[in-house]
Design brief:
This protein is of the alpha+beta class. The chain has three domains: about 240 residues, no CATH class; about 160 residues, Glutaredoxin; about 140 residues, Galactose-binding domain-like (Jelly Rolls, Sandwich), CATH 2.60.120.260. It contains 16 helices and 18 strands. The strands form two sheets. Strands 8, 9, 10, 11, 12, 13, 14, 15, 16, 17 and 18 form an eleven-stranded antiparallel β-sheet that branches. A seven-stranded mixed β-sheet has the order 1-7-6-3-4-5-2, with helices on one face. Helix 3 packs across helix 8. The protein is globular, with a radius of gyration of 29 Å.
Length: about 575
């Protein structure tokens, strides 16, 4: 029920979004007619068509995208005809008979009945094919859920509820507009001029849609952004997680639960299988991580440091590798990553998320601190507060009877991708390339699981990204299907990382990076040279940019000189 309410309110707010502007003329073209027989059927037709098309586009693959594009062309022809017949009765005579008939059917008014509801519904269906609302936080959640859960009654119901919210706000605008037009006609006798003005606006709306303004410029240039309001609504329904527990030195640590079973691990590295019972008498640090996660990579130097510093004093560190992407489930990939990252403590492969679920965990990285009696005494999610975490380790070891513990705090002096984040609160967010969780994509609709030619817009705003060239976008990733395919991102941050993999046959893929159209020089990352050249050889996180001075806003572009690369997610530091 909460989600339905959220979807409805998100739809209501679309009246404030600039992406509603191109369809407003089609709605107001019937503002002077009885609402029950004209406005209501039109809005219902628009809502049902949008919900159907959005459901198919979210779950149906590339064929649904193509079908909708053809439908948009037909709808634009129909509505352009409507605009011409509104603009001039004489001009309508020059239009071929079938189109005149179709335009008349959509616009004619029955003198006795005030207009056909079926023609109004047809106009609404055509408008629904053209409507491409700005994907704010609420619509983004709905489309992501549709892509993840597949076609279902719930998916269509949520999208229909969203469309109903939009129809409600348009109905209110239509009611107001109808009264204004009626007043103008009575007081000024301006009916014919109103009709012509609406015809011109309809044609302008068709032109705006044909030029892609509804999915391009109007998405980027917001006259009244609703993103902040929508995010507050989402937060009200789905509250933020509770703050991290604060530990004061020497204060008693609470008991948060018992160490769950470790029996769900699909494989163990660097050790024989461990159990909760075999770990009794030891202080245990459980680190949930995955090897392409930049936050996990940046916390690893501390986890390695604690394992080395306290292993002779009763501490056992267990890295629970819970994969985020499918390639991270492959044991050979994890084995290579463990070696490359210098992880020599026990690692449990949690491909089925059995250990993850046992802890009720939701985060990468997540650290759980278990005492010698097998009780969870503290936890920490994400990066940071490393000194506090080491204080907890020392306190639990002291409780277990350990003496003469080494002093000081671990100071790893990490380099490359393992170096601490810049701390810039305005840096770009983690951005997924696969359609299941993609946000801030610029450049039109995305064809699901189908090879498609994409064209990068001339300009991007902060945190927008786009594809250029031929790509196949899948749930988790996008694959380049031609040489010289590009990804462009307008980002802010000191570091830019991109999780990449070579072609499906394992062949390396060469690439070249530019920043603001130039070679990166001193701003290159550890996986590129000063000219921006690099090669994708394995499935992992690649550091492509490290700005030498500051975290300013830049335009990043990566061109893949060979086809077949697989791109997963951007992260920033």
């Amino acid at each position: 029920m909460f989600v339905l309410i959220l979807a409805y309110l998100g739809g209501v707010l679309t009246i404030l979004s600039p992406c509603i502007l191109p369809v407003l003329p089609f709605v107001f073209a019937r503002a002077d007619r009885p609402f029950a027989r004209n406005g209501l059927p039109m809005l219902l037709g628009m809502a049902f068509t949008f919900a159907l098309v959005a459901t198919l586009a979210a779950v149906g693959g590339g064929w649904a995208i193509r079908a909708n594009q053809y439908g948009r062309i037909v709808a634009m022809v129909v509505l352009a005809t409507l605009g011409l017949t509104l603009l001039s009765n004489h001009l309508a005579e020059w239009i071929s008979r079938p189109f005149v008939a179709l335009g008349n059917k959509l616009t004619q008014r029955s003198d006795a009945e005030g207009g056909s509801p079926w023609s109004a519904a047809g106009l609404g269906a055509a408008t629904g094919l053209l409507w491409a609302p700005c994907a704010g936080p609420i619509l983004g959640l709905l489309l992501t859920g549709a892509a993840l859960n597949g076609a279902s009654v719930q998916t269509t119901l949520l999208l229909l509820t969203y469309a109903a919210g939009a129809a409600t706000s348009l109905a209110l605008a239509l009611a107001v507009g109808g009264r204004v037009f009626a007043l103008m006609k009575r007081s000024l006798g301006a009916g014919e001029w109103v009709r012509r003005a609406l015809g011109a606006l309809v044609l302008a709306g068709v032109a705006a849609i044909a030029l892609g303004f509804d999915t391009g410029l109007l998405t980027r240039v917001s006259l009244a952004s609703t993103g902040g309001i929508e995010q507050k609504l989402i937060d009200a329904v789905r509250p933020a997680p509770a703050p991290q527990p604060v530990v004061k030195a020497g204060a008693p640590l609470p008991i948060e639960g018992e160490l769950p079973s470790l029996g769900g691990a699909t494989q163990w590295l660097n050790t024989t299988p461990l159990t909760a019972s075999s770990l009794r008498g030891k202080v245990v640090l459980v680190d949930f991580w995955t090897y392409s996660c930049i936050n996990c990579i940046r916390s690893l130097p501390y986890v390695r440091g604690w394992a080395d510093k306290y292993k002779e004093h009763g501490l056992v560190v267990i890295g629970v590798h819970a994969p985020e992407f499918a390639f991270e489930k492959q044991p050979q990939n994890v084995i290579k990553a463990v070696k490359d990252l210098g992880v020599d403590y026990p690692v449990a492969l949690d491909n089925e998320y059995a250990i993850w679920k046992g802890f009720n965990n939701e985060y990468w990285p997540a650290h759980y601190f278990i005492d010698a009696q097998g009780r969870i005494r503290h936890h920490h999610f994400g990066e940071g507060e490393y000194d506090q975490s080491e204080d907890v380790i020392r306190q639990l070891l002291t409780e277990a009877g350990q003496k003469n513990l080494p002093g000081g705090y671990v100071q790893p002096g990490a380099q490359g991708a393992e170096a601490a984040s810049s701390g810039d609160a305005q840096r770009s967010p983690e951005t997924y390339v696969g359609y299941a969780r993609a946000e801030n994509f610029a450049g039109g609709q995305v064809a699901h699981d189908d090879s498609w030619n994409y064209s990068a817009p001339a300009m991007l705003t902060t945190n927008q990204w786009t594809l250029d060239g031929r790509w196949t976008v899948r749930e988790e990733s996008a694959r380049s299907d031609s040489a010289n395919s590009r990804i462009v991102y307008r980002f802010r941050g000191r570091d830019l990382h991109l999780v990449l993999g070579p072609s499906s046959d394992g062949k390396p893929v060469r690439f070249r990076v530019t920043i603001d159209g130039k070679a990166p020089l001193g701003d290159h990352g550890m996986d590129t040279d000063v000219a921006g050249n690099g090669t994708v050889t394995s499935q992992r996180l690649y550091q492509l940019v490290r700005q030498a001075s500051g975290t300013g806003e830049r335009t990043f572009e990566i061109t893949f000189l060979d086809p077949g690369v697989q791109a997963y997610a951007f992260t920033f530091g």
